Amino acid sequence: MFKRIEPKTHFIIISITVAAALCFLGFVIFYYALPAIIQKSDAIEQAKTNLAALEEKKNIMLEEEEKIKSLSAKLDAVEAAIVPADNPVTFFKLLEDLAARENLSIEIKPASAQNAPPNTIALTVSVTGALKQGIDFVKNISMLPFVVTVSDIALSRSVATASTETKPSAKTITPIIGETTITTTLFAASRP
After folding, report:
1. Alpha-carbon gap, residue 112 to 89, rounded angstroms
2. pTM attached to this predicted model
3. CATH fold of 83-191, please?
């Protein structure tokens, strides 16, 4: 039944068998394995895209977290610059110390809140002493560690002339001795 096959024919049969097996293998790969590989490849690409988007969102979140920390520090500074409405003693003490440094006497009274901005403490502050020190006091109010607005300033002076033994001439300057009172309305930012 089987006769001896020549080597040339044997080689052709093996070649055809191998070619048919390769074609069958290619068919299986092309129709079954290739779509699964493509699907897995697309899933990997989608995962990479999602990972990149998540990484970008993470970086944005970290930036926003840093901004929040920065704003928190600024908020703490603002909170420290606001006079507590229920306990403004520290603010009053600073005003009194400032007046004492300038050798001024000070009087602090509540002011009419009619024209006051919202969330402020309205005060009428009167300092009495030398004019220069009174002006320095008003300038130095802005140096206080609180948010303070100076609204109205009024000057008044108690005048006394120096007594002189000689008659005043045109070139003689009569010194005016007395104290100046500077009255100002302050609006200090406060928490309700």
Report:
1. 19
2. 0.54
3. Alpha-Beta Plaits (3.30.70)
